[in-house]
Design brief:
The protein is mainly alpha-helical. The protein is about 60% helix and about 0% strand. The longest helix is centred in the middle third of the chain and has 24 residues.
Length: about 250
């Protein structure tokens, strides 16, 4: 990251420079290059970018609402995990806390994907960090709100698509006490979870939806699963019981 040079285009950029920027956009936002069949559906959008009719930010606003991006991330992920990857793709960091997650989750719920993407790309943070013409990238800030924020961004930016499942956002992995190394999380001993952060573990488990709990239990060993169930509220137990019967 120390040697990383942000990719920026302007009205004086050559076609080759814009083509390179387009490649970097897909690397950051789609986490791969579009397939040939997919490029046909965004040919007009790419043409506008390459001819300098639109900048990076406007390109992202439109591309993030295409079936290419939505099929890759939105339809296959839970809402909270989708927000997690949106922050990774467009702000180069993880969601900082529950307040930020709640704020953007409300936008996603009430305004849909377009509202969420617009809110992120129109945010003051995005404008100050990337402006209209710089391709977003994994950030290495000089200051983080907390050590947890630093670790969560590091893990999120290093993970591959689906590497830690499709439901649980980065923030929950840490708060549940699971150990992460190089973007990969492994189940800790249950005693370590309970002794390290018993209050936080219980609180975070009780904030999970039924679908998130199911995903979490699927990837847990027997001992860890028992510890998770022990921290469930009575309503969660009932909802989980109904879900398992179906």
């Amino acid at each position: 990251m120390l040697d990383f040079t942000p990719v920026t285009v302007n009205r004086h950029s050559s076609l080759e420079e814009r083509q390179f920027a387009l490649t970097q956009i897909y690397r950051q936002v789609l986490e791969r290059q579009p397939y040939e069949s997919e490029r046909k559906t965004i040919a007009s959008l790419e043409k506008d970018f390459l001819k300098d009719k639109i900048g990076v930010r406007r390109f992202l606003k439109q591309f993030a609402c295409t079936d290419i991006y939505l099929n890759q991330f939105y339809y296959s992920l839970s809402n909270v995990k989708f927000m997690d990857v949106c922050f990774k793709h467009f702000l180069g960091r993880a969601i900082s806390d529950h307040q930020e997650m709640k704020f953007y989750n409300t936008i996603l719920t009430k305004q849909g994907v377009h509202g969420l993407i617009t809110a992120i790309l129109d945010s003051e943070e995005y404008r100050k960090t990337f402006g209209c013409f710089t391709v977003p990238y994994p950030r290495k800030d000089n200051f983080y709100p907390s050590p947890e924020a630093f670790l969560e961004s590091k893990f999120l930016n290093e993970e591959h698509i689906g590497q830690r499942g499709n439901s649980i956002p980065t923030m929950y992995w840490r708060q549940l006490g699971w150990t992460c190394t190089n973007g990969v999380c492994r189940h800790p001993e249950v005693n370590e979870v309970l002794n390290t952060a018993p209050k936080t573990t219980s609180k975070e488990i009780q904030s999970l939806s039924t679908n998130d709990l199911l995903e979490l239990l699927k990837t847990s060993d027997v001992t860890t699963a028992k510890a998770i169930v022990a921290n469930l509220s009575s309503s969660q137990r009932q909802e989980l019981s109904v879900a398992l019967r179906h």
